[in-house]
């Protein structure tokens, strides 16, 4: 286990270094200049020069990269070129919003997806399976922004059930917090729910035709226990992996959802920073995202090896 | 074909193209609005008291204290995130919305776009040689941190605007040599040369007075906790998402302030902004799309304020900006850069009337010059508009020896409104013998290409300033910092310099008229239309006003009883 862990940690570190270099170069390869984007209408050569000097944009890429890496290593992510706010505090306030949104979305998607998947597998070939399949197809193919707009138009504007925008921190008012987040979370979770449903269905079908299920049935266990304890539990291994792999899709979905519902989350922060060519913010958010990805992948792998020890053995070999 | 029929066909074509070219989100925004037959806006459309005829301004009215209940939080849906909340460093237009509630200025604009005193008590007294301005100040005014507002504070602020690294105000303030404070209620500004636009500059961010104590404490980080004189004071900011200000009990006119707090919520998509307005999650929304405004005007719960902007939208032609801005001019070797006849032909092949009617529901207005008809420096000469004449355009192209269709590439911002405009122009100029190739680019990249001189033709606008000098000099003066056209005319330079230094208003009006005549011959910029500042306001709210500077005045509003 220890060797497996070390191996995975080493791989993660290399990935992180590569990601940092790619991001740094990528941001600078974008057409457009942060000083110009910041100056907007009020630009004159003198103030452009001053902005470039102030943020070290007049330095060579190598110097800028070193500055970024050495500061980041000390936990200093710089400050936003646009607003002057420290990037660390921007991330600190945006990250919890996205995490809460994503966790809610995963929960909602998990309940809907696993439920529908089990139903589709158990009621194979019946209308229930058809309905579940149709819903999954819809969930996968309808884009978030369209769903979001429709939700705002019908549920917020016409019926007034949910707020169309805004955010209340959980600790200020938990009820208002959930009221603001339910709609975005449902919309964010649709794609994931569909994937979970399909995965649960197919692995449940595999499980249901396996020998151990026949044994369980032969022992006279009630169907509930056969499906819930034996088939579902074994099917969930694959589902956990899929959820892990889909986290990326979740974060990119959050970009759209957060913009539509004006949620102060990480996705919105990222996109706005890109539009404004706010280099320190883009670099920092991508660095944090990359780290999160790597850590999540690592955790999924570890979780996997805990659930199924055979993987650990193979990894060590 | 009748004109109306032509326009409908025209708009449906634009619609089809937009659906393909502008991407799914854009397409979605257009569904149900742009794709319905175009109804030229007319004056008698239903929509309650606030609807108005095309071209007519609705600024909103001041709140009647008897009809307003005290308290409440106003949520304003803002179309863009303001940048630094520091009057010295701020460059975005949107910061002015927030500043309006928390940083008062020496001067302000009235609804007629004339300068009126705010923290000053009267317009400046200017010495006969134009080199000295004396400004009398209000007494008994306190900053939000309790400090006293006086001449010394004004001097500190102006000096900061002039000297802080990266100051965006320095050029606006002109050739100031010193600032004197003969007594606590008078500030005297000394100049090396007369500078007529100074008073107007003091009615914008350059005239905002910062608390000297806060400046001393925060220095260049003033934006993290700005302190000025204002009806509201800064409370908090969530980056790229919201800004909150709360009522300042120290404010000298606090009795007139009804609201407890104002939250500015940044919602960049215009259709979502208007959805928030309709759902009541926001009570004010700025920069409505001309696509959404007609629907909102028909909504019983919302009224739409509109004011004509002082700026313009136009086409800039690259004449001499081959090496990028700031480098010596070098003429491009293309017919459109070399021959004014080709540029005139392009100008003549554009039907501005049809453009504003079909693309902007008649809400924007035609523009042929950088001088707004709302400016006090306008004249007949400054408003002359050459008629749409594609036949003459073709003739001019033939005279210039150019084979038609003459292909020109235009870069434009990739937002839905710009794309619709570009496609409309493309259809129009065909008749005049031009083939317009549209290259949509993201805004930050557009600015970059513009400054590097990497374009033939570009479509962009200018939000406008009160003094005409700020709308012309930088853009077409040979040494103008934003002369991206690379235009250079000694005659225009002289007229502009004279107008800048003239202290007589009639003289300035005459000079700007002459500048416009000359510009219409040379066409470095083809002026197209003036945007309307469209602001949606919930009818539950009283006292929201929008003046021609486009700033939404929310400070003295309140919820109706």
UniProtKB/TrEMBL annotation, chain A:
Q: Which CDD domains would you find in this protein's record?
A: TM_PBP2
Which InterPro entries does this UniProt record tie to the protein?
A: BPD_transp_1_N, MetI-like, MetI-like_sf
Residues that span the membrane, as ranges: 101-122, 134-157, 177-197, 236-261, 281-304
For membrane topology, the record states: Multi-pass membrane protein
In which compartments does the protein localize?
A: Cell membrane
Q: Does Cell division count among this protein's keywords? A: no
- Residues of the ABC transmembrane type-1 domain: 95-304
Cross-referenced Gene3D superfamilies, in alphabetical order? MetI-like
Q: Which GO terms describe its cellular component?
A: plasma membrane
Entry keyword set: Cell membrane, Membrane, Transmembrane, Transmembrane helix, Transport
GO MF, any single term: dipeptide transmembrane transporter activity
What family is reported? Belongs to the binding-protein-dependent transport system permease family.
PANTHER family found in the cross-reference section: DIPEPTIDE TRANSPORT SYSTEM PERMEASE PROTEIN DPPB-RELATED
What is this protein called in UniProt? ABC transporter permease
Automatic annotation (TrEMBL), chain B:
User: Per the record, GO CC terms?
Assistant: ATP-binding cassette (ABC) transporter complex; periplasmic space
Q: Name the InterPro entries for this protein.
A: Peptide/Ni-bd (IPR030678), SBP_5 (IPR039424), SBP_5_dom (IPR000914)
Which keywords has UniProt assigned to this entry? Signal
Single GO molecular-function term? peptide transmembrane transporter activity
Q: Signal peptide: which range, if any?
A: 1-29
CDD domains listed in its UniProt record? PBP2_NikA_DppA_OppA_like_5
User: What are the Solute-binding protein family domain coordinates in residue numbering?
Assistant: 114-481
Signal as UniProt keyword: yes
Source organism's superkingdom?
Answer: Bacteria
Key word Signal present: yes
- Please name the GO terms of the biological process aspect recorded for this protein, alphabetically: peptide transport
Looking up Pfam families in the UniProt record yields: SBP_bac_5
Q: What is this protein called?
A: ABC transporter substrate-binding protein
Q: Which organism is it from?
A: Kribbella sp. HUAS MG21
